[in-house]
């Protein structure tokens, strides 16, 4: 029996449906309306979309060409029209998600007006946008199915089976939303409360970053400050508890590390023995070895393998990491997160460079073989310049003649029709597929579609 006929039969079994009081209620219309609105609550949506993400993660593990993508959106109508267009163009929404970005909410949804990406917007605006997005996506379902029901009513008998097949195989516009909780908007209790709101609105995947909540910066700005692992893991656990409390047992946590561009830490990690997680975090600090002759009043000191060292502390009371340790810290962050409850990792980079990403992922996968990355195809990148530089460097390493090019001036329009420029454009077009194959990228975020990412949706 078809899905529609099954639903009609259930409607006919409602005790009051055949009473005189309900004589104007048509069971078939009830069934149609139920099919048009199959998701009754945000929790229903979160459970359904979490199962989609888990399946997609398994698919990627078996075949890295089956990566997923999302488009950023800041309004329900925008999200609705994107999914309608994608479904119309590709014939399916399979492996297509939406991304709810904190910077978009700060810039476009705050009652305070446009704000920088520093977690200054209202907490409630995040869950509110998730709910709004799914309201519009459910409306897209109702619209398309409504058209199919009208088509069924008007179809001749020899065409009804064809229309019924479309109804039976209807694909919903409800897709996973990866939702940005920034750094949790406070301590782990605040993170838990906000995660609950987001899940209740329908979020199946929550992305959280290891920056200090009240020092949070945009991922592509200087001055980022990270927290010791124990603090970040407490927030990951808080999100997991929120998922489990609400019955979304397979909810997805994306742990983002900003360590590549973060040269500061808010505080020293607590360490109990040499080689523990706190000790590893502190090992990246920029320190001076001291003794009783150069100690100063108020110095903070660490005993490191029998030597007394003084971490370099700024007037802001922040501590400085050694330069050049960003990639090592990202690797440690990612492994630690995956070993302690995260499902996916996000490494925020300063440029779209497959070699750089792959070098970190290769180290991570020595410990976590199925580690998967969510990657920000950021509009902040200068895609053209980055890839022209990468092609120039590859040509130089291969011994090709680069005398016609000035590496410091590769954005000059005189190069636009050159061999180098064409190679760079080709690499931009294939970046997502290549990176998913070579660098473990399961999901490509396109926070804001640009000229460079317009060819990426597939």
Briefly, what is this?
The chain is built from 15 helices and 14 strands.
Question: Could you characterize the architecture of this molecule?
Answer:
The longest helix has 31 residues, at 124-154. This protein has 15 helices and 14 strands. 45% of the residues lie in helices and 12% in strands. The strands form three sheets. An eight-stranded parallel beta barrel has the order 1-2-3-4-6-12-13-14, surrounded by eight helices. It is globular. The chain folds into two domains: 1-36, no CATH class; 39-270 and 325-384 and 440-446, Phosphoenolpyruvate-binding domains (TIM Barrel), CATH 3.20.20. By secondary structure, the protein is an alpha/beta fold.
Given as residue ranges, the uncertain stretches (5+ residues, pLDDT < 50) are 216-221
Q: Give the percentage of residues in beta strands.
A: 5-15%
Using the coordinates above, name the CATH class of the largest domain: Alpha Beta
By oligomeric state, this entry counts as: single chain
Query: What's the CATH H-level homologous superfamily of the largest domain?
Result: Phosphoenolpyruvate-binding domains
């Amino acid at each position: 029996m078809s899905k529609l006929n099954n639903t009609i039969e259930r409607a006919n079994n409602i005790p009051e449906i055949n009473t005189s009081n309900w004589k104007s209620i048509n069971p078939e219309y009830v069934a149609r309306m139920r099919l048009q609105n199959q998701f009754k609550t945000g929790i229903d949506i979160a459970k359904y979309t979490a199962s989609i993400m888990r399946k997609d993660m398994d698919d990627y593990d078996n075949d890295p060409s089956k990566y997923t993508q999302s488009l950023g959106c800041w309004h329900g109508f925008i999200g609705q029209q994107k999914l309608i267009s994608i479904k119309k163009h590709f014939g399916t929404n399979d492996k297509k998600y939406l991304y709810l970005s904190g910077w978009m909410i700060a810039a476009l949804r705050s009652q305070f007006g446009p704000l920088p990406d520093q977690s200054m917007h209202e907490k409630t605006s995040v869950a509110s946008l998730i709910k709004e997005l799914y309201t519009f996506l459910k409306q897209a379902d109702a619209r398309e199915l409504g058209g199919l029901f009208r088509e069924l009513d008007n179809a001749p008998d020899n065409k009804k089976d064809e229309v019924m097949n479309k109804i039976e195989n209807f694909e919903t516009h409800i897709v996973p939303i990866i939702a940005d909780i920034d750094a949790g908007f406070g301590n782990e209790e605040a993170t838990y409360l906000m995660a609950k709101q987001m899940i209740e609105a329908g979020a199946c995947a929550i992305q959280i970053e290891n920056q200090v909540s009240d020092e949070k910066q945009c991922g592509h700005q200087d001055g980022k400050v990270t927290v010791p692992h124990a603090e970040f893991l407490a927030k990951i656990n808080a999100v997991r508890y929120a998922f489990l409390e609400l019955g979304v047992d397979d909810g997805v946590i994306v742990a983002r590390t900003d360590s590549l561009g973060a040269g500061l830490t808010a505080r020293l990690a607590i360490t109990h023995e040499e080689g523990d997680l706190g000790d590893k975090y502190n090992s990246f600090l920029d320190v001076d070895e001291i003794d009783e002759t150069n100690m100063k009043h108020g110095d903070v000191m660490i005993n490191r393998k029998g030597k007394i060292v003084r971490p370099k502390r700024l007037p802001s009371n922040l501590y400085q990491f050694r330069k050049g340790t960003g990639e090592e810290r990202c690797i440690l962050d990612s492994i630690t997160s995956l070993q302690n409850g995260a499902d996916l990792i996000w490494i925020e980079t300063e440029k779209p460079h497959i070699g750089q990403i792959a070098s970190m992922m290769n180290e991570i996968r020595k410990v976590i073989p199925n580690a998967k990355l969510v990657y920000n195809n950021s509009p902040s990148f200068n895609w053209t310049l980055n890839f022209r530089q990468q092609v120039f460097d590859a040509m130089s390493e291969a011994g090709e003649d680069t005398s016609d090019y000035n590496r410091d001036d590769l954005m000059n329009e005189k190069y636009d029709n050159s061999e180098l420029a064409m190679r760079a454009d080709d690499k931009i077009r294939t970046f997502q597929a290549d990176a998913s194959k070579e660098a473990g990228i399961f999901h490509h975020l396109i926070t804001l579609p640009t000229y460079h990412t317009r060819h990426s949706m597939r």
